[in-house]
User: Fold these one by one.
Assistant:
Number 1:
Amino acid sequence: MTVQLEDVTVHFGNKHSGRTCALEGFDLSVAAGETVALLGPSGSGKSTALKAVAGFVRPTRGRIRLGGNDVTDLPPARRGIGVVVQQYALFPHLRVADNVAFGLRAARKPKAEVSRRVGEMLEMVGMTAYGRRFPRELSGGQQQRVAIARALAIQPSVLLLDEPLAALDAQLRADMLGELQKLRREVPDIAIVYVTHDQSEALALADRIAVMRDARLVDIAPAAELYAAPPSAFTASFLGGANLLPVSVDEGAVKVAGAVVPGLKPEDGKSLLCIRPHAIRLEPPEPANAVEDVARLVGRVVAAQWRGASSQVTCLVDGLADVVVRVDVPADRRVPELGAAVVMVLPVEACSLVPAEVG
Ligand SMILES: Nc1ncnc2c1ncn2[C@@H]1O[C@H](COP(=O)(O)OP(=O)(O)OP(=O)(O)O)[C@@H](O)[C@H]1O
């Protein structure tokens, strides 16, 4: 079932308590079988958008449609949506199987159907052996799996997930991410909206990513496209921490700090060069092989952080005040000393141009 938010605006508070605009003119359409991640910094309006779809907040303006039907005025329980939030929110006094059965019983489904469906759901999330336990007797990851089983038991055609992995440690998060990928294959027709501030979750799960900032949608595109060719400076740095370097145009050539970026064509209104930290190579300052399709920036190392599989090295570029370049140096390459002069090699196929921020 398609989920549509049309020009949705949500204001909280009043003139006494102070008004917050949590969502402003928000448009989004999620097709049946599609997963869209809402990605953005804290307070950007992601949860509010999701709550508007679930019916937990009432839009100040705009409409919510499910399968083409206007549900803006329907209470949450009548929207037929599965919702999973960050803090599991299982009923503590009910056993696992009863938690999963809750929505089916509320809908007065026959006993045999309830027990068959609960069995299927627990099997799908690998929790068959835990049906008689109480939530407090489960780990965080197990509780979250039960929460997902409960949300899916009512066979919703829309599933809303609000930071479902945020309360889990790194290993569990990775395991659950795998489970969610599996779930998508098992319920292929469901529309999923996935709220996260974690770009790796968004990249792993979403068909499309909607990047949000200050109550608005900034960019929306297929995940790979948004990563490879971000349309805005904000998305470039939020998704993958891209470097953004000011360019000048000289006789039809794009230049960074006076160095030509061969093969890159100037584009109207785009004055920043975007390149990911892992795409840059560091070399000692020696004469270059001129035939390479690369830009070469001269500078020096000002900081280095070891991160296990790689080190992040921060460099300043000669001739570019106040601009730092972050470079990921893989563990098998030598990390230059602090203060060392280096050449940052920018392969042209990894460079794109984005507009500078306005306002
Ligand atoms: N019930 C509420 N009353 C008043 N203000 C609210 C309410 N809920 C959210 N807000 C405000 O609306 C804005 C958007 O909040 P929202 O929870 O949608 O952000 P978010 O992107 O989901 O953030 P996070 O990643 O921190 O959960 C914030 O400024 C928040 O303080």
Note: The chain has a mean pLDDT of 90.
Number 2:
Amino acid sequence: MTHQNVIRMNHVSKSYGKKRIVEDICLSIERPEILGLLGPSGAGKTTLVKMIAGIEEVTDGEICLLGERMPRLKLMEQIGYMAQSDALYGELTAKENIYFFAKLYGLRGKTMKGQCEKALELVGLLDDQNKIIDTFSGGMKRRLSLAIALVHHPRILILDEPTVGIDPVLRNQIWEQLHELKNEGITIIVTTHVMDEAERCDRLGMIRNGRLLALDTPEGLKQDTRSQTIEEAFLFYGGGAHAQ
Ligand SMILES: Nc1ncnc2c1ncn2[C@@H]1O[C@H](COP(=O)(O)OP(=O)(O)OP(=O)(O)O)[C@@H](O)[C@H]1O
């Protein structure tokens, strides 16, 4: 199987009014991997992933997913997007929520049930599926959002700070699952502030003031900057992210 050009970003910039938020980013992903975007608050990570997901338009440059220029409606079913804030129906159960989104993606019948169950199992929510969302903790809501993002088996999964509010044990499990999904051929883009998560990405893009300062494996970044840790490497590039 060839996996050429899963994602290609060509001189991508974004402005709101006169303010430049993302500045001339070039980046390409040619085979399934977990690409982390690390940067301090306000660096432009969310804006960048929204453009990749086709939710925001680029001001300059272009983004192609699977060889097609974004935004493109027909590509939407190839993309799973988990926003930073959960978009769930509070008065419905977890199961009702995930069924709702699965149906939006055109899933029906046994396939829908099976995929919903698998996604809920993946995030450890199978036993809580009949509970009302308003009774869920923040971490449970994040996990449900993650299950919803991957229920339709997208080829590209875009996760904006997926593990905020999730305890270390479950966070670890989720990262193991993300690596399994990658091994199944899914490309994952994940934004994070958390240094131990950054270490678990195949490649890491360091972002500050809307610019991609460096892009390499975590090991490569450490070697290039003669750093012991990713945080040190990030500081070398003028970053200011904090460890958690
Ligand atoms: N719709 C908008 N209009 C104007 N400015 C915006 C808009 N959306 C984002 N910004 C600005 O763009 C900058 C980057 O925001 P963005 O959310 O992309 O950063 P981030 O790296 O994801 O930060 P965080 O980690 O805190 O989520 C911020 O200064 C923000 O105020």
Note: The mean pLDDT is 91.
